[in-house]
């Protein structure tokens, strides 16, 4: 057995069940380490007080890349309301644009039947050309967003976003949403807002927080802050499980499926004792207004209570008038946005929500449609982890030859229907390869030194059962995170995703076999499971409890590579190499029990 001593001052960054490699920490002598740290600290404090941000003020642009302008290749970036172009990516990194302009006076115009488009300013017209029609569409969309951004007013957005819950989309969790549904009193992102519009104004009244500023009264803004995403989702998502939830990478099909289930079919809404009983719901709504219970009034209206029911009070015939009389302005505004008037409904009136409740009960909860992810990525042209000379080696997998910029080739990557396909970026009809996602066993973030030297900053690796490992790189960190979450959705079955909940952005995800060994009693046999690694927490799905069990790696005593024959290998390894069914195991040693993972 080979023992790897654990240094209390360092954390275990990653545990990989991949047969080809096991990543860990390398240790150096204390004296050399202290000298190196001290030297690095001195240099950083003397010369590099401010961290370098590529692009300067255009750091992390919304869209960037090479385009052709007047026959010359230029590097173009857009962020917020600004547009800039550079001689090369190096000038972009050092923040030295040829020109940087605000888009408030610009017009973006498509040139039909050509891979070209215009950006028209009063003083100059820029003509850009792209490699293909898809790139052209993405650039036009990004630049049009920049024009809209430049014409926006942020006062309302800033005020409503002062509530923490309103800083992420109520439906997909996207950061910095700038749209709202005023009758639902939620803040949503641009993509979800498009789906809400399709529901119709009787379900969702969509307004911009930046462009429709004139419609925002003080009462509406106060309502959005007091109710907001927290109170709304406490009702709409009370019964939402992890597999039905969506995130910011969801495509239009998934968003439409989720939002319709949430707000029209009420599949995830908190059930009410008076469900389908119009008179009881009406009385409960009147009582909620009298008690100034905003949460109860909110849930009752969307369960079918009539905001215009007769209160029986001559001075306030409807719940809306009653709220006004009692000076409960937030409740009054909420009822007003949901059809309340000064006139009471006729006796025996049944709301549309009650009338449609039987249809909703009979509706079938359709399965979640597969997500489609489509991006241009850079793929390393070969097996990332193995060279021909050392294809059979295991352990600390290092790249044996330095990666060059030319080793990464730009590919159009599409993941849909449980398949990953990538194409030639210029000839999109030419498919280079396809991977069945059921063959994947591990996906993880990585940043090899050689890849960094080649200019690739946001890398991730994909390991297959066949033993091959692919290396991809994206232009932005957000794109890499999107693909990681997409792969998780393909690898993990729905019941595991339910156990995982809304947690995301892991360092590594995958599936493996696990075996426990207790010090005082007999251990378990090999069990297939799914795992995640984030920070110092290694989580695996516990088959009996149907929950994600957490191993805090800070409490680990030792990390052991067990080469003995005392421990059997899994009955069906997650993947095989060269026809061999046996291999060493990783042993994670804790005080009371050990965990064995195949490598």
Secondary structure elements and pairings:
Elements: E1 2-5, H1 30-47, E2 63-69, E3 72-79, E4 82-86, H2 89-93, E5 99-102, E6 107-111, E7 116-120, E8 125-129, H3 133-150, H4 155-160, E9 179-181, E10 186-188, H5 190-199, E11 206-208, H6 218-226, H7 228-236, H8 252-263, H9 278-290, H10 294-303, H11 319-325, H12 329-337, H13 352-355, H14 357-362, E12 373-380, E13 408-416, E14 419-424, E15 431-436, E16 440-446, H15 449-453, E17 458-464, E18 469-474, H16 477-491, H17 494-500, E19 508-518, E20 527-534, E21 537-542, E22 547-552, E23 558-562, E24 585-589, E25 593-598
Antiparallel strand pairs: 1-23, 2-3, 2-8, 3-4, 4-5, 6-7, 7-8, 9-10, 9-11, 12-13, 12-18, 13-14, 14-15, 16-17, 16-19, 17-18, 19-20, 19-25, 20-21, 21-22, 23-24, 24-25
Helix pairs in contact: 5-8, 6-12, 9-10, 10-12, 11-12
Question: Could you tell me how far the N terminus lies from the C terminus, measured between alpha carbons in angstroms?
Answer: 14 Å
- Helical percent range? 25-40%
Describe the largest sheet.
15 strands, antiparallel
Radius of gyration: 29 Å
Number of strands: 25
Assembly type of the chains comes to single chain
Q: Write down the overall mean pLDDT.
A: 79
Question: Given the C-alpha coordinates, what overall shape results?
Answer: globular
Count every helix, treating DSSP H or I runs of 4 or more residues as helices: 17
Estimated share of beta-strand residues: 15-25%
Query: What would you call the structural class?
Result: alpha+beta
| Contiguous runs where pLDDT drops below 50 for at least 5 residues | 1-52, 387-406, 572-582
């Amino acid at each position: 057995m080979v023992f790897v001593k654990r240094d209390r001052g360092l954390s275990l960054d990653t545990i990989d069940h991949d047969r080809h490699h096991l990543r860990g920490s390398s240790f150096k002598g204390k004296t050399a380490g202290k000298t190196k740290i001290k030297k690095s600290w001195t240099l950083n404090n003397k010369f590099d007080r401010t961290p370098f941000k590529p692009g300067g003020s255009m750091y992390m642009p919304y869209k960037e890349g090479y385009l052709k302008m007047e026959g010359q290749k230029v590097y173009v970036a857009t962020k917020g309301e600004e547009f800039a172009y550079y001689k090369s990516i190096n000038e972009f990194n050092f923040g030295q644009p040829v020109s940087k302009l605000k888009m408030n006076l610009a017009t973006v115009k498509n040139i039909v039947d050509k891979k070209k488009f215009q950006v028209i300013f009063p003083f100059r017209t820029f003509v850009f050309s792209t490699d293909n029609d898809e790139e052209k569409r993405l650039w036009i969309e990004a630049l049009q967003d920049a024009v809209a951004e430049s014409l926006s007013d942020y006062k309302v957005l800033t005020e409503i976003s002062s509530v923490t819950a309103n800083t992420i989309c109520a439906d997909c969790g996207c950061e910095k949403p700038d749209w709202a549904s005023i009758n639902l009193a939620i803040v949503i992102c641009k993509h979800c807002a498009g789906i809400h519009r399709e529901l119709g104004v009787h379900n969702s009244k969509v307004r911009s927080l930046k462009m429709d500023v004139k419609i925002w009264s003080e009462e509406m803004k106060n309502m959005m802050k007091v109710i907001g995403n927290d109170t709304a989702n406490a009702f709409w998502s009370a019964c939402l499980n992890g597999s039905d939830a969506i995130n910011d990478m969801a495509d239009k099909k998934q968003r439409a499926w989720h939002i319709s289930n949430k707000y029209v079919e009420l599949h995830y809404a908190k059930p009410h004792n008076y469900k389908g009983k119009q008179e009881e719901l009406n009385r409960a709504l009147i009582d909620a207004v009298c008690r100034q219970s905003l949460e109860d009034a909110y849930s009752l209206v969307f369960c079918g209570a009539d905001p215009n029911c007769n209160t029986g009070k001559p001075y306030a015939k409807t719940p809306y008038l009653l709220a006004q009389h009692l000076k409960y302005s937030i409740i009054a505004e909420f009822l007003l946005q949901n059809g309340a008037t000064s006139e009471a409904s006729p006796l025996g009136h049944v709301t549309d929500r009650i009338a449609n409740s039987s249809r909703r009960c009979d509706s079938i909860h359709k399965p979640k449609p597969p997500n489609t992810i489509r991006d241009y990525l850079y793929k390393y042209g070969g097996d990332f982890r193995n060279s021909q000379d050392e294809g059979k080696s295991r352990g600390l997998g290092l790249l044996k030859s330095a990666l060059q910029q030319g080793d990464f080739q730009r590919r159009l990557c599409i993941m849909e229907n449980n398949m990953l396909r990538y194409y030639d970026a210029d000839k999109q009809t030419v498919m280079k390869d396809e991977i069945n996602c059921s063959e994947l066993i591990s996906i993880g973030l990585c940043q090899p030194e050689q890849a960094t030297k080649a200019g690739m900053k946001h890398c991730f690796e994909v390991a297959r059962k066949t033993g091959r490992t692919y290396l991809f790189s994206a232009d932005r960190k957000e794109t890499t995170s999107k693909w990681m979450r997409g792969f998780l959705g393909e690898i993990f079955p729905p019941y595991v995703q339910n156990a995982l909940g809304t947690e995301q952005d892991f360092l590594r995800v995958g599936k493996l076999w696990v075996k426990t060994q207790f010090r005082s009693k007999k251990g378990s046999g090999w069990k297939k499971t799914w795992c995640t690694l984030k920070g110092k927490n290694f989580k695996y799905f516990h088959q009996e409890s149907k929950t994600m069990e957490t191993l805090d790696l800070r409490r680990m005593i030792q990390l052991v590579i067990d080469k003995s024959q005392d421990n059997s290998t899994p009955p069906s390894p997650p993947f095989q190499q060269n026809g061999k069914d046996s291999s060493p195991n990783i042993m994670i040693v804790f005080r009371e029990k050990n965990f064995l993972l195949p490598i």
